[in-house]
Write the structure tokens for this entry.
Amino acid sequence: MTAINTRPVRESTDSLLRFALRTDATLCGGLGLLVAMAADPLSRLSGLSSTSEWIAGAALVIYGVALYAAAGLRDVRRVGVGVLAGNVAFAILVTVVLIAGWLPLTKLGVAATVAFTVVTLAFAYAQYLGVRRLA
């Protein structure tokens, strides 16, 4: 007879990190699909070209799929540290771009970008808590 030994849920220390990574992946993928499908109308609202919107949406979908797969890896702490660092670097880069005015964004485009960056930082915080729990 073969027995399957699994740890009880209460003993799992990586569940918060996996949840944060998978939620980040799911929302990025979903938002990416929305942006890619509605690239033309969104470009009129944001100030970017429809090609830029489509590329950004496609990149979010690819990132979401890759992140969801990476969240299932055995060494999830390393993935969490990498994604956490990437999310913080992304937020800093977006802040610099917005302050410098390097993109021709409308007021709505700036507001949407700021909102996306705040959500990214919220995920980074959840990932930080998950990584810290594993330390």
Observations:
- The first helix runs from residue 15 to 37.
- The chain has one domain: 14-134.
